[in-house]
Design goal:
The chain has 286 residues and is of the alpha/beta class. It has eleven helices and 13 strands. The strands form three sheets. The protein has a six-stranded mixed beta sheet with strand order 10-9-8-13-11-12, with helices on both faces. Strands 2-1-6-7 form a four-stranded parallel beta sheet, with helices on both faces.
């Protein structure tokens, strides 16, 4: 039996990458400057980050059950099964909406299989996880085996972040107003990660931007599985030079061969702000 992997736009891929990996995508929406969109070009993302720097605000909306069903049903009607790999339930209701749609469609297509996995991942961390899943599908792994692989390995996808401006985390309730004010005055940069429940957690602090970037690379040395990280992903909130510096560190220190660098997507970037920088790799644990 053949099957289709369906994921959502919080993979934060360049748009062409979904087709390259044989994926079907549904998109979360962002409202910015009075317009709602679910199509994010590099130009649009840069404009959004420029707007955020100027004090503008973007709001986001999860994928609803109807949108998920609209992506799943043509696959099922065409005789294929479905594997959904959804944005972390710790950050969005997107996964829960996929479950609602799947339950309704199972009644309509009782002979088809619909598996829904909460990746507990975000941004290009979700992207790297889905990348590995897509490669295994291409290699011939069947649906049941790949679903089990996803459940067994999702907590090995390490997400390490830093941000340049604590005020964006304050707006999202990640840090207190006092912490954000003092941290900004003292040039404190947080180091955060996505935990086993899929939540964004503040782990430590550094003094200065360069130290925070070096801390991300250091985490890969501490947690990375030896020999398993020829490929890593890096995302950035319109700070390409910082992403390239981080790339140079992981290449030099750990022999990484392939690095995908791309914008943090509109949904997460609207909450974490310009200057967000994240490194994603495989570890023994998060």
């Amino acid at each position: 039996m053949s099957y289709q992997i369906i994921t959502d736009s919080c993979c934060d891929y360049p748009q062409e990458m979904y087709a390259q990996l044989g994926l079907k995508e549904v998109a979360l929406t962002v409202t910015f400057r009075g317009e709602e969109t679910n199509h994010y070009t590099e130009r649009w993302l840069k404009d959004m980050f420029d707007g955020l720097r100027g004090g503008e605000v973007a709001t986001t909306a999860a994928v609803n059950p109807e949108t998920w069903a609209g992506a799943m049903e043509p696959v099922l009607a065409g005789g294929e099964d479905v594997l959904v790999l959804a944005f972390s339930s710790g950050l969005s209701t997107t996964y829960q909406s996929a479950c609602i749609a799947a339950n309704e469609l199972r009644e309509k297509y009782p002979h088809r299989k619909i598996h829904v996995v909460d990746t507990l991942c975000a941004s290009l961390g979700q992207g790297l996880f889905v990348y590995y899943a897509a490669k295994k599908r291409q290699e011939g792994m069947e649906l049941e085996e790949l679903t089990n692989w996803c459940l067994e390995n999702r907590l090995k996808l390490c997400h390490w972040f830093t941000v340049d401006d604590l005020m964006y985390l304050k707006r999202g309730g990640r840090v207190s107003a006092a912490t954000a004010l003092v941290g900004t005055m003292l040039n404190i940069k947080p180091v955060l990660h996505v935990d086993d429940e899929g939540h964004l957690i503040n782990v430590s602090k550094t003094r200065g931007r360069k130290a925070s970037i070096q801390a991300l690379a250091k985490k890969m040395g501490e947690l990375g599985i030896p020999g398993a990280n020829d490929t890593v992903f890096i995302c950035h909130g319109d700070c390409l030079e910082d992403a390239q510096y981080l790339e140079s560190l992981v290449r030099e220190q750990y022999g990484v061969k392939d690095v995908l660098i791309y914008y943090v997507g509109a949904v997460i970037g609207s909450h974490s702000g310009p200057g967000t920088l994240a490194l994603f790799f495989l570890g023994e644990h998060r």
